[in-house]
Write a structure and sequence with these properties.
single chain; 453 residues; alpha/beta; Rossmann fold; 2 domains; six-stranded parallel β-sheet; 16 strands; binds adenosine-5'-diphosphate-glucose
């Protein structure tokens, strides 16, 4: 079995206990064959003080590289998160582009390649993650690396008509041809990529393989998932914990609707808050009978669009609460912090409704975690955006279009009033699916495809 090398911007370090499902899946994959995890150390240092930190934990070696402030600004805050993130989430009007930031992004990819190449063997299998590192394989090839290299894009891929608004699209996208395998979340992402390769780069296609510069690249969808059985187990075992008991007690028999998202404009939070306010306006009978808990830990606060979103949501929650709150009831509970994965599972379990309404999402693991955490006997209902990758796998959810306020209000009402039998039926179909299509199936399929099966 070949050694596995995982390369990602952030690495879940050996002592990190809050690492999520993806980190657990990577650790499991690395343990199976022994392996190396390479990425940014999370530290910003002066150029002369850059270190490659080496560490081992069991069968896994870690190699973590420091970046300078300038590199981080251009590569991470700039091109990755102000250019690629909005564009790949179908929002070119939010995209900011500068040649200097693209140059900084390419330079960090080159630096990663220079530092990891000496650690690689030709019979390794290399798995690169996400939009921060698209050109990495091209940089590795130019240093003579012959190993099989796969890439997985965690976020969506827009159609070529949108991709071409990126001024450097030809330069960037052509580097994808250096991978043996490019994995995306859903088949629509794969078709968009095929259309780009054929229509814009003019490559030929045979089956699911494109040929560029004499090299063959397979493109396929691998919908990411969760550790379904583990989330189900956690959701039961934490019910006695203080955080869960306190939340339940504070509801005083009212229903709970829940949302859990990084504070990100792709998650559709302003429209969700507005829909909940409108639901209370139009359905007086639900006032004082349901609370909406939105958990949204801040992310990327150094990017201005994220700071603006935060204050916009504070105003929106404040306005709805000001209008409808009673001395003993607050309609929107807005909490800006993160929780342990197990605590979240407990929160999901005591909720009757989840609102997962992104404007665009590669997959959305919260939707899957909510389903996994429900009680089989009396499961909650899931309101899910048709623009989340997860909607293709969970058609039994209440599927809504987040741009349609009336449909959002209908969805909330439908979820809160759905008869128990119907909830059970819908839930059972989703849960069965997720038990089979879990995070382990995902990583095994990707790695089998990378091996060329
Ligand atoms: P994200 O945009 O981060 O991921 P998501 O898929 O929902 O979105 O994953 C978030 C993860 O963070 C979930 O496991 C969730 O439980 C956890 N989380 C969120 N809020 C939290 C909180 N307050 N405390 C603790 N944990 C919290 C990107 C893409 C997605 C894709 C994933 C995986 O944008 O579309 O599904 O990668 O590929």
């Amino acid at each position: 079995m070949s050694r596995l090398v995982v390369i990602s911007n952030r690495v879940a370090q050996p002592r990190e206990t809050r690492a999520g499902g993806l980190a657990a899946a990577m650790r499991a994959a690395l343990k199976e064959a022994g392996g190396l995890w390479f990425g940014w150390s999370g530290k910003l240092v002066a150029e002369g003080e850059r270190t490659l930190h080496r560490e081992s934990a069991g069968a896994i070696d870690y190699a973590l590289l420091d970046l300078t402030r300038e590199e981080y600004d251009a590569y991470y805050l700039g091109f990755s998160n102000r250019t690629l993130w909005p564009l790949l989430h179908f929002q070119p009007t939010v995209m900011q582009y500068s040649r200097a930031q693209y140059a900084g992004y390419r330079a960090v990819n080159q630096l990663f390649a220079q530092k990891v190449a000496p650690l690689l063997r030709d019979d390794d299998h290399v798995w690169v993650h996400d939009y921060h590192l698209i050109p990495l394989a091209a940089e590795l090839r130019s240093l003579g690396v012959g190993a099989r290299i796969g890439f997985f894009l965690h976020i969506p891929l827009p159609p070529p008509e949108l991709l071409v608004t990126l001024p450097c699209h030809l330069d960037l996208m052509a580097t994808m041809g250096a991978y043996d395998l490019v994995g995306v979340q859903v088949k629509d992402d794969a078709s968009a990529l095929f259309r780009y390769f054929l229509g814009v780069l003019g490559t030929s296609r045979s089956g699911d393989v494109v040929e560029l510069g004499g090299r063959q690249t397979r493109i396929a969808a691998f919908p990411i998932s969760i550790d379904t059985a583990e989330v189900a187990r956690q959701s039961q075992s934490v019910l006695g914990n203080a955080a869960i008991r306190k939340l339940r007690a504070s509801l005083a028999d009212r229903k709970l609707a829940i949302g859990v998202d990084r504070l990100d404009y792709s998650k559709g939070l302003p429209r969700r808050f507005a829909a909940f306010g409108r639901f209370l306006a139009e359905h007086r009978e639900w006032r004082s009978r349901v609370s909406f808990l939105q958990i949204a830990p801040p992310s990327r606060q150094e990017v201005p669009e994220y700071r603006e979103l935060r204050s916009r949501l504070e105003r929106s929650a404040g306005a709805t609460n000001g209008r409808y709150a009673e001395p003993d009831w607050v309609p929107i509970r807005y909490v800006n912090r993160s929780f342990a994965q197990a605590t979240l599972a407990g929160f999901y379990r005591i909720a009757q409704l989840a609102l997962v309404t992104p404007l665009r999402d590669g997959m959305n693991l919260v939707a899957k975690e909510f389903v996994a955490a429900q009680s089989p006997d009396d499961p909650g209902a899931l309101v899910l955006s048709c623009f989340a990758g997860a909607a293709l796998e969970l058609p039994q959810a209440i599927i809504i279009n987040p741009y349609d306020p009336e449909r959002m209000v209908e969805g909330i009402e439908q979820g809160l009033t759905m008869p128990r039998n119907e909830r059970r039926e819908r839930w059972a179909a989703m849960f069965e699916h997720l038990l089979v299509r879990d995070i382990n199936a995902w990583r095994r399929e990707f790695l089998a495809a990378l091996e060329g099966d």
